[in-house]
Amino acid sequence: MIASDVTDEMLESIVAIGVGTEDGGFVPNPDFSNPQMLDSSGRVVISRLQTSVMRKLAEETKGRFAIAGSGQDIPALVKSVVAGLHAQHQRMARGGA
Question: pTM value?
Answer without folding.
Answer: 0.63
